[in-house]
User: Fold this.
Amino acid sequence: MTKRLETMIDQGTGRIPADIVLKGGRFFDLVTGELVASDIAISGDRIVGTCADYQGVEEIDISGKIVVPGFIDTHLHIESSLVTPHEFDRCVLPYGVTTVICDPHEIANVIGEDGIRFFLDSALKTIMDIRVQLSSCVPATHLETAGADLPIEKLLPFRGHPKVIGLAEFMNFPGVIHKDPVCLAKLEAFQGGHIDGHAPLLSGTNLNGYLSAGIRTEHECTTAGEALEKIRKGMHILVREGSVSKDLHALLPIITERLSPYLALCTDDRNPLDIAEQGHLDYMIRTAIANGVEPLAVYRAASISAARAFGLRDRGLVAPGWRADLVVIDSLESCKAEMVFAAGRRVTDALFATRKPVAPVGLDSVKARPVQAMHFGVPVAEGETPVIGVMPGKIITEHRRYRLPVKGNQTDLDLANDIIKVAVIERHGKNGNHANGFVQGFGLKKGAIASTVGHDSHNICVVGVNEDDMALAANRLGEIKGGFVVVEDGKVTGEIPLPVAGLMSLEPYESVRDTLHHLRKAAYALGTTLEEPFLQVAFLPLPVIPHLKISDKGMVDVDRFMLIG
Assistant:
C-alpha cells in the first residue's frame, strides 16, 4: 500500500503522469455550487488532481462536458428489477449509478440466509459498489406465511462482511414502539451502526419513540409535511421515485439548498422497462430540475449527502483523495450520462465481461398446490363487503366498502364499479393457505394477472375477472418456477419466468425489458388502466397494520386492515 500511496502522491503533484486524465471539461463543485474548468487526474480508484493541468498515460477529451460525482441509490430492492445483481449492475451503472445500498429483503423472505449470501457474493464481483443492509423483517409480518425466518442469531454472522452497512428498513414500527422483544434484539445488536427506517405516516411522540431506537433514515415519506417533521427530528430523508411508489413530485418543496445535506435519492423498486424508457436516478435529477429545483440541491442529494448519510466517507465529491466514481454529462439540466467511471475504471462492455459469475439460488421455491376455479369463491356476507382500493402511483391502498352483487351463494364482482377478485395463495409449501377478496382500481374487463412477486412474503397473488383464468394463471406460475403471467379467455397471452426465488430472471436485462413490454401490452388488452399493473399486483398482499385476522383456513378478514407499503 505504501508504494501505491507514493504513486498517488506523485501523480497528484504532477511529478509523473496520472493513469487517466479527463481534459477540457468542467466539474460541478458541490461545496460552492460552481462549475469549475479543470483537468481531473485519476490514479487507480482515486481522484488525485483537480484545478490544475495534468498529463496522463491515457488522456480523454471531454470538452464541453460536465463531470459530477457518481450517483448513489440509497434504498432499493434489486429483486424488483427482476434481474440478478450482475444484470442490474450492467443495466444501471451506465446511467451513472455507481453505488447502491440494497436490502435483499425479498429474496430473504423466500429462502432466508441463502438469499443474503447470494447478494453478498454477487456484490464482491460487480463493477458498481453494491452495499447491503441486512434484512430486519423476515418474516415481515405474522399475518402471512413467508418462506423463511431470520432472527438476530441468523443475521449476526453477516454483520462483519465488508459489503454490509447495517440493518435494513425496520418495517415493524409498531413492534418498536411497543418494545417487542424480537425487534429489540435486532435493534440492540446494531446500536452504533446504521439502522434504516420504514415508518409511513408515523408522527408525534410515536415517531419520537421509534427514532429513540437509533433509526436514522427514511424512504416512506409521501408529503412534504411528513418529511419536514422527520428532518426536524434528525432523520435523513430518502426521496423515492420507483415504478409504483412515486413521491418525487410531492417532495419537491423540500429539495432545497438548505435541506439538501439531509436528503438523498432512492428508487426502492424499479424495473428494466422503466429504466430503459425513463432512466434511473438521472431521471429523478432532471425531473427535479425541470420542476424548479436548484441543480446544486438535487446533485448533492444524489451523491455527497447520500454518502454521508450511510457513512461512505470516500465518495460524493470531485476532489483529490476521493473515490473516482464519476459521471460525464452533457448538461446539469439533462443529466445524460455520456461516460461513467466506477472506482477509476471506465464503464464499458469489456469491463463487465471481466466479472465472475455467481451461481443462482432458489430455483425450486414455488411449491404452491394446484388450484381450480371453485377455490376463488367468496361466501355471501351480510351488509357491505370490504374492498381494497388501489391508488395509482402509490403502494398505499384504501379500505373501501361496497354492497356487491350475489351469484348463487357467492359474492360476485362488480365490473361497473371496477371491482374484481384478488387472491393470495401460499407458495412456500408450508400450509397451503388461500385467501380471497376484492380489489378496485385495476380496470380489468376480462382475464387475470398473477405473480409470485408478492410483497413481502412473496406468495402468489392473482387478480382477475374470470375464476377459470385466475386458476390457469396461478397454476402456470408453478410450471415456470415463478414470475408474471397474463391470461385472457383461457389462454396464456404473456409471461415472464423468474426462477431465482420466483423473483428474478436468469436472462439478460435486455430480454427482461423486451418481455416486460410484451407483458404490458397483454395486460392492457385486458383493460387495465394502471401504468405499472404487475408491481401493483405485487404490492396488493402487503399487510402491515396489526389486527388483520387469518382463520385456520387462511381466509383474510379485510374488514380490519389497510394495505400500506
In short: The longest helix spans residues 509-524. Residues 83 and 504 are 5 Å apart (CA to CA).
